[in-house]
Amino acid sequence: MTTLISAELFKLRSTRTTWATAVALAGFAIALLGFNAALLGDPGQPEAVPSTLVGLVRTPGPFIGAGALLFGLLLTSSEHRHGVALITRLGHPRLPSLILGKATAAAITGVVLAVAVEAIMVGGGTILLASRNVAVEPLRHGMPGVVAGVVAIGALYAIAGVGIGELLRNPALAVGVVLGWMFVAEGVLPVVLREPDVARWLPSGLVTATLSAGASPDASSPAPAAALAVLAAYAVGLLIAGLGRACATDP
Amino acid sequence: MEGIAVHRLTKRYERVTAVDQLTFTLVPGRVTGFVGRNGAGKTTTLRMVLGLTRPTAGEATVSGVPYARLRDPLRQVGAVIDANCFHPGWIGRNALRSIARTAGIGDNRVDEVLGLVDLTAAAGRRVRGYSLGMRQRLALAGALLGDPATLVLDEPANGLDPDGVRWLRSLIRGLGAQGRSVLVSSHQLAELSQTVDDVIVIEQGRLVAHDSIAAITSGADSLEDGFLRLTAREAE
After folding, report:
1. pLDDT score for A216
2. What is the predicted ipTM?
3. Calpha distance B153→B143 (Å, rounded)
4. Which residues from chain A sit within 8 angstroms of residue B104, using beta carbons?
5. Among A157, A163, A20, which Cα is nearest to A102's?
6. What is the DSSP letter of B69?
7. Residues B91 and B124 sit within 8 Å (Cβ to Cβ)
8. B222 near B189, Cβ under 8 Å?
9. What is the CA radius of gyration of chain B?
10. Which of B49, B61, B77, B102 should we substitute to test contact with A (largest number of A Cβ atoms within 10 Å)?
């Protein structure tokens, strides 16, 4: 299993899309810091206060999830698209452990991405607050919970990506379905079902709830730990569905 | 050491029987040609041997066990099934490194096999810029990474130029001379006749003949003649 995970990590490292995604997210984090540096304290804008740091750390969470999802998708659907899956199967013929190895490698990459972006946000945010003579309180305002939540979202979305990629086996289709889900289905479902609260239990709502530690409590939203548990169930469910498809299609 | 053994191997796709109770055993240290018309069941058989297609009935084993149960399969069997099995965005060396890491094979061996298939100079180029012949060589390099005792090659000469075909012939003969068991599927019978020790002929998924090249071509002008005679007799 260790050699398999090492091989899958190597594949991700050797793929330009991985680096492009990581650089784009790092750029987004830096731009976010610059934006805050320029606006904080301006007339009509929020003041820089100790809890500003947790807001900065929370903001990239959904984007890190999207990036990690892309890593997972690439690791599986792209292999099927380019015929690489054949070589991978020859090297590791046992499907369940193969897919588990891919999910582990994708999760590790998602965690690394989350830690890297959060390090930029914490470091940059600390410098920003210190430059405004605002107290830096990294262990208050729910900071540890938010950082842990972002890292967990990175891992879970990557695992979900492996499942979706194995289910759909076509990168363009997989990305299209994910975008359709995020921007259309999640908005339409609560309306169609006439249940606005459903949105809180869909992935985007769960990400918001997971990252809500330290924020004003919303009684109708799940607690961060519960939201994370449901997100984990989504990720594992998608991974099992992908494995089921693989076992049904391949020997 | 036992190489590839196929016993009553059968594959049916709804009403079509692609492979029909095929039985043969490869002798280690011999190069065996695997010939048949398009659709005769060659690739399906090879895929079943490699655990990529589930047989309807029968069994294919390598060293006595099904491929899926092999420990460290890349060190036991090397396979070329499709030259287009590398991500076009990867550089050639990284394509091989990704395979090597699955089996815990070091980068030194990657460089060694790149030299063996004469791709050292192109190893830093992206696979999308490779010709079909170069991709075929890269796939061969991938098959040789684990220094396996058994090789399964499906149409390995596809896309190779005359120099490449001569190089491949010498490579395969060399591998056989080292005591490896090599199964080569090909439509290029004139070329195959210069490479193999034994020949397996299949027609409509069934075994027609499995004998030495001398026996198959006995009384015929060439392997092609021998093949056509055998398969015509089968059709009757």
Report:
1. 66
2. 0.81
3. 9
4. 3
5. A163
6. G
7. yes
8. yes
9. 18
10. B102
